[in-house]
Amino acid sequence: MKSRGLYIHVPLCASKCIYCDFYSLPLADEVVTQYLNALTREIQLKGEIWGGPVTTVYLGGGTPSCLSLGQVAAILKECNRFFTWQHGSEMTFEINPGTISKGYLRGLKNLGITRLSVGLQTTAPRHLAILRRRHTVGDFIRVSENIAGAGFVNYSVDALYGLPGQTLAEHLSTLQAIVAAGAKHVSVYGLQVEPNTPLAQAVAQGKITLPAEDEVADMMLGGRDYLLSQGFSHYELSNFAINGYQSEHNAIYWRNEEYVGLGPAASSYIKRRRMSNAADLARYGSLLTANRLPVAACEQLDGLWEMGETMMLGLRMLSEGVNRERFRRRFGCDCVEVYSAFIAKFVAQGLLEVTPETVRLTTRSFPLANQVQMAFLP
Ligand code: SF4
């Protein structure tokens, strides 16, 4: 079956982290009610148009674990009236390591959730405080035990590096805690200073100083070496997994395949059309009340752009790369012929590798990955 993802954005957070520019709102009963009512309408509207089989389901945010089990069950039940998935399909649920009980996790399992994604970021108390994360290392250890106790094997943890004053030893200590906790997948991101965040303001005012570029690169490479030594494969630029635990849902994005996004600020990609929902609960809700799709931006991609994006995104996958046969089936041509000039140049520079099956980045290209990827866009 062709892969197709379903993403549900839960725009609720107990508090706002200093670096975050995702759309989320402070948790309050009336906000939850407004969100759930509007989401139900969106499921029905989009379900009638784009319903059908999906291969993965992902509840992200925000903080989906702000919802009660009953609310999660109601969302999935409504989705299931229009979107179908096979029992045991990858269904991911993001949690923060706050007060998540074993009972809540067991409940998620009973709802069919097969994979958890835990937003840890760091184990250093001073960094958790700077980032305004609400949890402690103790919370992470407890939630990891509860995850295992509830019978989940497939779980991922997010880590951030390049934090203010962070050393390589501190980053490695976070990764060691994640591996010790039994995670099968780790997403490791460099801290980005997004415009209009409190972090951007603090950096501009000189209140926060970030590590130098070479220190950040050392953390990236040191973290990578450590995870490889623990049996993880570096299968995507920011993602590591024990074999068999790679994220199927994220692979849909990286292969530039279709997904339906629900919830404020969620994106969809269907029939070469990229759509973003209004990133504002009031606007999102009022469009749905008027029986209109809550879409704020829509872009119809032409064939050339779609090919370029397929190259750009596919190169994120370090082991799989851009699968030439899949590309040929989709576009009727060989990507190595279409992009022969770029590919020859990058191969000569040692930045790309071409095999009969794939085109992929080399280890040497990591610091320049973005530059190589962007060259494929028209
Ligand atoms: S918990 Fe996640 S979504 Fe919420 S503010 Fe923090 S980083 Fe953003």
What does this structure look like?
The chain is α/β, with parallel strands linked by helices and 378 residues long. The chain folds into two domains: 249 residues, Alpha-Beta Barrel (TIM Barrel), CATH 3.20.20.70; 72 residues, Orthogonal Bundle (Arc Repressor Mutant, subunit A). Helices cover 42% and strands 22% of the residues. The strands form five sheets. The chain has a nine-stranded mixed sheet with strand order 11-12-10-9-8-7-5-1-13, sandwiched between helices. Helix 6 packs parallel to helix 8. The longest helix has 22 residues. The model has no long low-confidence stretch (mean pLDDT 96). It binds iron/sulfur cluster. Iron/sulfur cluster (SF4) binds next to loops.
Quick summary of this structure?
By secondary structure, the protein is an alpha/beta fold. It has helices at 29-50, 69-82, 102-110, 125-131, 137-149, 168-180, 198-204, 213-229, 248-254, 281-289, 303-314, 324-331, 335-338, 340-348, 369-374; strands at 4-10, 12-13, 25-26, 52-53, 56-61, 83-84, 90-95, 115-121, 155-161, 185-190, 233-236, 239-241, 258-262, 267-270, 273-277, 295-300, 322-323, 352-354, 358-361.
